[in-house]
């Protein structure tokens, strides 16, 4: 195995692949260390720091504020490895490799790699670099200090403890999490109600710039009553959806929650596990490691998880309804039965609904999100208002994938999400709940634009070198498992 891995590393670090391979990483057994390598160097990462083995350290720069704000990102799209930044590289990689389903070797795409034949899009995420890993993070409302934009960064694993703390869970009860509550951003004392908003796949710089320019008036409204972190919240690795929804809502990384990618290989059962799929979202808890608790299980009072696979312990859950409905082929077919017609939705950008079926479907799913959040806050029954409500928005990821993070379709998707947010915030205001509610807005990862001319594939040279492997989710290499 070690011999096959070393041969694979040699193939993957060949300069002929450096336009698509940003770096490769693998665990060092027993020591807890992680090796990283690419065409330009190699290093051994540990809790004590990095020791360079050859050339330069591929993750030598780890500034979470790199490429902020938007103008800085736009001035250097697709930065090369030597100019890029990899915040918390050791912490994030070692968390992944602590999971039993982790691959033998990870291949990290360069930001510019375009791979439509293997399912890649014009906008992508999943890599270790800062732009693909950075979600926005805004905290607003009850108990939050109105300090505007702050030159700080957090991690996606900090979202769970922050929500639970705001909703009254004692800090000591959250100390088993990997992340920590962002206690410096709010005054002591819980809020009566807490709302967590996840806008999937939003580019953080873009969201803040659009709020500042008046294009996202409801995000701006949150910011005016709170603060935003310029460096956002850095996703766990890989910076993909289900890994990070789970990290946000459990406060632990993949090494502990066990969901290591949108698709991975379970060595024990020798089957491929496909997690991020509308047909299987409702089965999320089957993949969670035993004993890992969600924020819904740590807060007392009514809780709600809207359009979100991560839902253990929530008093109300969209996918709980799907499970109770007993649909064999899962959430997608069952949801399709009652999704509204997006062409009739005044909150949706109709140009994209008509032209793009993914945009249309995501708009329908987000429309039932609005219906659910309104019904969870009945004007006449304040005692039913959730202590903690989490609301997942899908369309933003669809828009970012389709056109890349700074495209018209990505920006329109954020405008649609902002209109839906406005309907909800206006409702809270009308029923008298807004002043006693803390609101956190984040995402599960960032988004970076691929370069359509930057194509290439590492699987072919690996096969040509006679290496026996399977490549899950395009980058997770399991050796001897073809
Ligand atoms: Zn996502």
Q: Can you offer a commentary on this structure?
A:
By secondary structure, this protein is α/β, with parallel strands linked by helices. The protein folds into 2 domains: 2-117 and 453-479, no CATH class; 131-449, Alkaline Phosphatase, subunit A (3-Layer(aba) Sandwich), CATH 3.40.720. 31% of the residues lie in helices and 20% in strands. It is built from 16 helices and 22 strands. The strands form 5 sheets. An 8-stranded mixed sheet has the order 9-12-8-19-11-18-16-17, sandwiched between helices. The mean pLDDT is 95. Residues 200-201, 241, 397, 444-445 line the site of zinc ion (ZN).
CATH class of the largest domain: Alpha Beta
Mean pLDDT: 95
Strand composition percent: 15-25%
What's the total helix number?
Answer: 16
What's the SSE blueprint?
Elements: H1 2-12, E1 21-28, E2 33-38, E3 41-46, E4 49-55, H2 70-75, H3 89-97, E5 105-109, E6 123-124, H4 130-133, E7 134-135, E8 137-141, E9 148-150, E10 154-155, H5 159-166, E11 193-199, H6 204-212, H7 217-224, E12 226-229, E13 233-234, H8 241-250, H9 254-257, E14 263-266, E15 271-274, E16 303-306, E17 316-317, H10 318-325, H11 330-338, H12 350-355, H13 357-375, E18 388-393, H14 395-403, H15 408-431, E19 437-442, E20 448-449, H16 459-464, E21 469-472, E22 476-479
Parallel strand pairs: 9-12, 10-13, 11-18, 11-19, 16-17, 16-18
Antiparallel strand pairs: 1-2, 1-5, 2-3, 3-4, 5-22, 6-20, 7-13, 8-12, 8-19, 14-15, 21-22
Helix pairs in contact: 6-7, 10-11, 13-15, 14-15
This protein binds zinc ion (ZN).
Residues 200-201, 241, 397, 444-445 line the site of zinc ion (ZN).
């Amino acid at each position: 195995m070690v011999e096959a891995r070393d041969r694979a590393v040699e193939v993957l670090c060949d300069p002929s692949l450096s336009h698509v391979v940003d770096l490769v990483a693998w665990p060092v057994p027993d020591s807890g260390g992680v090796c990283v390598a690419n065409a330009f160097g190699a290093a051994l990462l540990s809790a004590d720091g990095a020791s360079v083995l050859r050339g330069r350290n591929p993750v030598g720069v780890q500034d979470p504020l790199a490429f902020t704000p938007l103008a800085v990102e736009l001035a250097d799209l697709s930065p090369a490895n030597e100019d890029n930044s990899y915040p918390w590289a050791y912490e994030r990689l070692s968390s992944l490799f602590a999971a039993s389903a982790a691959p033998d070797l990870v291949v990290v795409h360069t930001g510019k790699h375009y791979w439509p034949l293997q399912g890649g899009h014009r906008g992508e995420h999943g890599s270790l670099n800062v732009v693909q890993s950075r979600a926005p993070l805004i905290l607003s409302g009850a108990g939050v200090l109105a300090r505007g934009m702050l030159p700080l960064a957090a991690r996606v694993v900090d979202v769970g403890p922050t929500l639970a703390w705001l909703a009254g869970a004692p800090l000591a009860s959250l100390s088993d999490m990997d992340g920590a509550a962002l206690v410096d951003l709010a005054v002591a004392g819980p809020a009566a109600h807490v709302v967590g908003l996840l806008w999937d796949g939003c580019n953080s710089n873009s969201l803040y710039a659009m709020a500042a320019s008046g294009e996202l008036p409801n995000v701006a409204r949150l910011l005016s009553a709170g603060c935003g972190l310029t460096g956002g919240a850095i996703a766990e690795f890989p910076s993909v959806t289900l890994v990070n929804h789970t990290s946000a809502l459990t406060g632990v990384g993949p090494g502990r929650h066990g969901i290591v990618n949108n698709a991975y290989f379970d060595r024990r059962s020798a089957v491929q596990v496909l997690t991020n799929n509308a047909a299987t979202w409702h089965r999320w808890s089957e993949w969670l490691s035993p004993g890992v608790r969600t924020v819904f299980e740590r807060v007392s009072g009514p809780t709600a998880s809207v359009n979100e696979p991560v839902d253990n312990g929530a008093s109300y859950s969209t996918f709980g309804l799907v499970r109770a409905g007993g649909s064999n082929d899962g959430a997608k077919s069952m949801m399709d039965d009652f999704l509204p017609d997006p062409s009739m939705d005044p909150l949706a950008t109709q140009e994209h609904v008509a032209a793009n079926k993914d945009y249309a479907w995501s708009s329908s799913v987000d429309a039932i999100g609005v219906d659910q959040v309104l019904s969870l806050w009945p004007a006449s029954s304040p005692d039913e208002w959730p202590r903690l409500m989490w609301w997942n928005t899908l369309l933003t990821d669809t828009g970012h994938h389709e056109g890349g993070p700074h495209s018209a379709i990505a920006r329109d998707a954020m405008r649609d999400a902002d209109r839906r947010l406005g309907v909800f915030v206006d409702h809270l205001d009308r029923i008298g709940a807004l002043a006693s509610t803390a609101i956190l807005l984040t995402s599960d990862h960032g988004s970076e634009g691929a370069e359509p001319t930057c194509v290439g594939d590492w699987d072919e040279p690996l096969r040509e070198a006679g290496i026996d492997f399977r490549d899950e989710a395009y980058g997770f290499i399991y050796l001897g498992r073809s």
